[in-house]
Amino acid sequence: MPNLSSDPGGDYVGAMITRRRLAAVSALFLTSAALLFAHGAAGAAASALTIQHPWSRPATAGGVGVGYFTILNPGKTPDRLLRVETAAAQWAGLHVSQMRDGMMTMDEIKGGVRIDAGGRVDFQPGGLHVMFIGLKKPQKVGDVLPATLVFEKAGRIKVDFKVETGAPPKPMADMPGMKH
Fold it and tell me: What's the superkingdom here (predicted)?
């Protein structure tokens, strides 16, 4: 050990300084390891979310597209889908269609969509869905619309919405009282 003092007890003082440094470095290492373990455990829980069958319908450039998928959360912690981001449209938002007082309504969802621990949430025609407003190019069958689902705990999960033919949407004129 180096002698860090000029007095006769310098070896003792140097050893004490070295022990303090070693203790500080050890504490820093243990704290870092604990944080990495906690983040790794959270990441493992977050990666437990599964996104199944993301799909969209054909749509015109400048128009409105729609996205459907299923979220599975086999983990022990609930999560929340906060938003959807995409460069393929001017704006993407979470919406729900539902019957209210005999009229079909569509509302933007504020505050995200909760996915319970061990739960499943279906985004499907006539219910929860993603609206892609101001599509930058036409969406034809076989195309892919890339997007990112942003979750409270799982973070960002990239998905590709495959453009498919699905159950045809009801024409807006057939939905009396349709409001947004």
Answer: Bacteria
Q: What is the pLDDT along the chain (180 residues), one digit of tens a residue?
A: 444 444 555 555 454 444 555 444 344 333 333 333 333 333 333 458 999 999 999 999 999 999 999 999 999 999 999 999 999 999 999 999 988 888 888 999 999 999 999 999 999 999 999 999 999 999 999 999 999 999 999 999 999 999 998 755 444 444 444 444
pTM of the prediction?
0.67
